[in-house]
Structure formats: C-alpha cells, structure tokens
C-alpha cells in the first residue's frame, strides 16, 4: 500500500526551523499503514530536512552553525545569476539535504526520545513551502 499527503508551511526564511514531527505522525496514522517506511521530501532547493532535539537553545546553536559554515553576507557566484542574494541558501540546502526516510512500526514513525523531524527554510525571504510525505508498507 502507498499513501501520500503534504505539509504546507508558511516560513519567514533565513534559517527558519519548524518541528514537523506531529504533522508526520498524523499523516502516518491517516495512512493506516502499520509496517513500512515514511519518506519525506521538501519541494525546492533552498530548504532542507533533518532531525534534532528541537529545544530553543539547540535551535540557536543550529542557526549559528549554519551562519559560521555558510555565511549569508558572502558574495556567492550564484547571486550574479539571478540577483536574488540567496546563493548561501542553495549551498546550505544541498549540504543538509532535502529528503529523509524513517521506519514505520506499529503504525508510528520510529524516532528517539529526543529526536524531532525539522523543516528548515534557508531562503532569504518568506515562502509558502510544501513537504511531501509518502508512506509505503502494509
């Protein structure tokens, strides 16, 4: 059996972090699939997905990490192409990744006690985002 749904997210941009764990769990429950896999994919090349302990101070550390690793204010070559100044967001997205998969057992996504699924918008402006969730199994 295959089930697909979407999560819509209105973002502010600039490393905006959203805990989407509850939305993923609701979709898995709605799928009625008890054993299988859940695959999540963000649509776009300036956002990403990961897992983290989604507590406020770790989120601050996460944002500071990205700014040190791939700073916003550098003059990226991509910025010359479109003039939109978001070269940094494409690089961050490519490094973090745009899809994740998780085992589903007993009709639930298997995660650690302090592991939440996060959606990150790296772009330099607010956006309407979509994450596609596909649950495959029986």
From TrEMBL:
User: SUPFAM superfamilies of this UniProt entry?
Assistant: YjbQ-like (SSF111038)
Which family would the database say this protein is a member of?
A: Belongs to the UPF0047 family.
Record the organism.
Candidatus Roizmanbacteria bacterium CG_4_9_14_0_8_um_filter_34_12
- Protein name as catalogued: Secondary thiamine-phosphate synthase enzyme
Where is coiled-coil annotated?
none
Please indicate which superkingdom the organism of origin belongs to.
Bacteria
One Pfam family linked to the record:
YjbQ
